[in-house]
Amino acid sequence: LSLSLHLPLPIFSLTLLCDITQKGYEKKRSKLIRAYVPHPGGMEGMSHRPPFGPPSAARFHRRRSSGTRDERYRSDVHSEAVQAVLARHVESKVAVPMPSKRRSLVVQTSMDAYTPPDSSSGSEEEAEPGDDMPGMEHWMGRPAHLGPAHLGSTSSSSSSTQSGGSGNAGRLADSLAHTHLSHPHLNHSAPPDVSGYSSDSSHSHPHSERHIGTIARNTQKYGNAERMETGDGVPVSSRVSAKIQQLVNTLKQPRRPPLREFFVDDFEELLEVQQPDPKQPRPEGAEMLAVRGEALGVVTNWPPSLEAALQRWGTISPKAPCLTSLDTTGKPLYVLTYGKLWSRSIKLAYNILHKLGSKQEAMVRPGDRVALVFPNNDPVAFMVAFYGCLLAEVVPVPIEVPLTRKDAGSQQIGFLLGSCGVTVALTSDACHKGLPKSATGEIPQFRGWPKLLWFVTESKHLSKPPRDWFPHIKDANNDTAYIEYKTCKDGSVLGVTVMRIALLTHCQALTQACGYTEAETIVNVLDFKKDVGLWHGILTSVMNMMHVISVPYSLMKVNPLSWIQKVYLFKAKVACVKSRDMHWALVAHREQKDISLSSLRMLLVADGSNPWSISSCDAFLNVFQSKGLRSEVICPCASSPEALTVAIRRPVEDCSQPPGRGVLSMQGLSYCVVRVDTEERLSVLTVQDVGTVMPGALVCVVRPEGVPLLCKTDEIGELCVCSVATGTSYYGLTGMTKNTFEVFPVSASGGLVSEYAFVRTGLLGFVGPGGLVFISGKMDGLITVSGRRHNADDIVATALAVEPMKFVYRGRIAVFSVTVLRDERIVVVAEQRPDSTEEDSFQWMSRVLQAIDSIHGVGVFCLALVPANTLPKTPLGGIHLSETKQLYLEGGLHPCNVLMCPHTCVTNLPKPRQKQPEIGPASVMVGNLVSGKRIAMASGRDLGQSDDNDQVTRTLPPVPFLFLSEVLQWRSQTTPDHILYTLLSSRGAVSSSLTCLQLHKRAERVAALLLERGGLQEGDHVALVYPPGIDLIAAFYGCLYAGCVPITVRPPHPQNISTTLPTVKMIVEVSRSACVMTTAVICKLLRSKEAVATVDIRNWPPVLDTDDLPKKKPPALYKPSNPDALAYLDFSVSTTGMLAGVQMSHNAVGAFCRSVKLQCELYPSREVAICLDPYCGLGFVLWCLCSVYSGHQSILIPPVELESNPALWLLAVSQLKVRDTFCSYSVMELCTKGLGLQTEALKARGLDLSRVRACVVVAEERPRMSLTHSFSKLFKDLGLHPRSVSTAFGCRVNLAICLQVNVCDWLQGTSGPDPTTVYVDMRALRHDRVRLVERGSPHSLPLMESGKILPGVRIIIANPETKGPLGDSHLGEIWVHSAHNGSGYYSGYGEEVLQSDHFTSRLSFGDTSTVWARTGYLGFLRRTDLTDASGERHDALYVVGALEEAMELRGMRYHPIDIETSVIRTHKSIMECAVFPWTNLLVVVVELEGSEQEALDLVPMVTKAVLEEHYLIVGVVVVTDIGVIPINSRGEKQRMHLRDGFLQDQLDPIYVAYNM
User: Fold this and answer.
1) Which of 198, 231, 618, 1020 is most solvent-facing, going by the fewest CB within 10 Å?
2) What are the Cα distances from residue 85, in Å, to 79, 91, 672, 687, 1181?
3) 25-60 tens-digit pLDDT
């Protein structure tokens, strides 16, 4: 995405900055854009314009039609630079895949129903009128839709502001508007490799090695969507894949300079450390000297304090007007005279000191702090309250009016009030009535606020002071005069204390700098409660007996020209405005006859320090010069809450010295270096001077961080001021005060600049020639990305310059940084207009990213658009930046569009791992021997025949070998009435049971049915399609009696035939079953309409219904001749979607049953509860085989019944006093989730688990520790012993390798150690290494031992590539040797050769004679300090994950479960997660619980979590509904099914985000 322009940047030392006059500025602009906008013949170059020519009316009409962008950030050069950059991008045709969104998420708002936001904020604190404000259209020069015809919809292109070339600008904008039509050609070959480290694009997929007997799923069922073959031959419909292909193509575009080539193959994955660029510009000037302002003149009649001034004017000229407030029509509402101000302030001062609290105990004493809560349209009441406080010697703390109980940032304001000890709030009558009230009419306590007494200051509510009472008026001293609040970058609110002497000195300095004289009239548009508005409009005005006309914000909203009309009406000499007020006046200006600005001698621009105010000043001057505005009248100033006014441009009479102006290189600025940009480059910042230092002040520029070292003359730093007229502290915060108000700058030689302390202003800039101060940004807006500094305001400006789309409310943009992977990342959040379409917004977003990347040379991590009016507001309507950031971090922004670009901006990932050439197996073995490490081998106890008095063997007849069918016959004769099986119904009642004899009899009748009706031969395969129950068991033994080979198959789900029946059909076909046995109900189901629609039922083998069995028995029961003959086939679908049938011989079955019998100590008097699916693996063996072999009673609980009654299993275990029970993870999860809140109720029902000796989870995966722990914890209160919960591990080649049952047989003493847990380093694991770490250390992953190795099982850990043995605690493939290994995959297609080594592998070195089966699982053995029952040291087996599931990304091996665990932790709404790789992109699918509006919140959170914890960039984030991730009966996620469903566009996702 980022085709950034890395042009060489020559460095030029700072020449005289002031040489770029308006003329040079215009000339530069024309040169800049000449290359991009072809001029029609005969068009004059722009350089022929006079420097301040008559305003081009057409030009401003055109600009007016744009009305979509915040003028504070407007700079024509900048806009055209952005357009030019984007024009270059159009040529390079980068197509970015658009996210897909569910219809319900695309909210189409009708414009009539929509109310515009009452604020599209200018500065962070203050709002601006929306662009479609009701009263606005009337003031527009011409309505927006009458823009020049050839510009069409792009008339707002900022390039159209250029005189002359507007046609071409339109063309340029049009060409940009069509960029999204270019589609990349779909690549039909193998998907390219974009991981960035291998040149060839060959890559192995988990699918590339196919199991035998695994048949690619029938693709026909997905309809005939147009297909495209992907790399590994998975057919996919083109929509999703085309987008992924587009993403892949985008990511292959050339990006930033490549990462440095190094990789240390050590355990620590090293994050790249950004090395400083050797070519970066460095400051070259001399060290700066501190700049001193002119001396503060001593005027004889200056009052000794501000109260003394008020007393003087209130008694000498009581009739003189002091303040005129206006209503919303612009008519004077009230004129406050100096006499009135004086008398009302005295009255209020008396009441504050004497009428609050009781007579004995006054509530407020001199020096106490009180809050001033007044609305912005009531300056009169505020002024009276402020001076009342000064006279009473209490300290006013002006704050904003709280609108609701939960205003953004109100908690922090409350903290300020609390820390200042405020107990009283002064307010006006109207404001008091408007505050939110509780039902009883009381004002509620606002969030985080102290308890306040609200006191109304109107005269009618106050008592008259006695005649002899008079306020004590002192000379200005070091007492605190007032506290001004300041909001920091992180949202905390600080109180800056200003002393009385500072207050007075500041007023004197302003009077001198601005040349104020008595009785001047001043128009104030600024907020009078703080900052420049307070200093000029409330304080300095009283010192000079001036008349202030206060223009409220509400009036400006209705009539943006009001302040200019008031200047004309009152012949005002001074006006105090912000650049946005000038912008509004331009937008609303028509050729009005009745205004003139010739009376103005000073137009004070309060935010002149904002680098982007320059264009408003230029434009305003251009239009209003004809109305008598003189250029030298415009006076930008720079100020901060800590240092008050820092610098101000003086209103000079002669305009001999033009204002200073610098066109600075953005790249230089990002390295804190001033470079006048003499190249015609696009990334420049034009700054204007803010005049010279204040009278009586000393200013220097210091390094922003660390020791306050003086900067060089061409270096940007933080301005510091030494003066009496500054704040003195942050109230109550001594540490922060020291860092800000007590700074002693030092020179390079180490000498102090002054013996007096300086105050940090929070402004970044430099002092140019002639002592002119230039500000380039604020400390609060500073974002440092890989060593370069960027200013948030500059980035906002670039975003707003991407003009031709009108999607975003101007000024409703927040830019901040978040820390991801140890570096700051830029986040841009904007409010989207309700009428913009998805495509347009996306188009705008991708172009904003390109513009920021090209102009600032920095990538944006996340760009989010939120619905209009949803960002948290400050009390004045601006965006509350820190609350917005907090919402982003917590996932509470609820954006409607998100575009993440981690690929562009995360450049400090560790290097991809280069695979080292494998060390030969011999060397490994020798190395292990030399280092004294043992080879990782372990075995269970011996399975040999034990002596006859052993209780275990006494339950079987003493013969060398028994087939299972013979064992059943023997039991039916010796213990005919012994119950072997009990099946429970969903209510927990016994629905049926089988004794040894009943089972034998039924099996005989099944055999008769097979031989007679089925006409089957010995060795034929029979598919048993039964629900979990007793019929299945009888059918299985019937097959053995008839000499047939049974295959258990899960029946199709009646509600879901279309997806479950094809699997049944496939198993029947692949296993070459000669007939199907089932119940009458399922028989009907197989022939139903839905079944006919799903599969072709004509080629089913014969289906036998076993509900009515023949009454006779077969002529003879079959006895196998060879123990190695096939007993049954175990078919299952693996998590990767592979169907495989494993052959189990009679020999293996006998050994298996014997092994389980020994491990679990099973004999006829035992009862075991089984809640497992009986179709494959250990679940089938326990359900069907073990009881017959060992004679114990099995209580069968079908897991399906738990869906309607989650407590069924545990209640059965409790009531039947069962000691051993087996379940699956899905059953455990059902109980944990379904019974979490019912433990008390269950206890009342008598549920008691204290008898449970072993609760074993049967699984083919790494133990799920968090689930087993929550289960143990939850049921601990019901008597479950935590040590009784354990796990078993099996796989396809060996259905049970580990099984821990007798863990805590506290009745007989333990016969084995507890399962142990170790913590391994996840980063080492990715490199196929095991590194043990302490619990809780970063990147640690807990692994639990998988259970005790079964008798007769030997295990070794081998290298999957070289097949060499590995040492203790080394990660490798688990190989197993045992009598109950499967004897091979079953395939009717003669392709056994391919997978034969799964069952018959030999080590390449060492013990090469033993035959091993490869499990396909990675794990390690670790010898523990515990001892076995035999007295041997105990070897623990830890399973890490399946090889076929593991993903190889960036050369490292990742197990999906680890990434999924991190993702699920990120947000409470993520219920489940699955990840899979696709063309080397990581795809993350999350299930969302909650409203769809939260879907987009998850995208940044998921991306960040995976980056931080796994150093991987997520390529695609898919948000879906609950239940979309397919899970098999064992509770395992089927990620490959999910992948296919995603690529075939079948998931119906809520949102799909393609990360750039």
Assistant:
1) 198
2) 10, 10, 24, 21, 69
3) 555 555 555 544 444 444 333 333 333 333 333 333
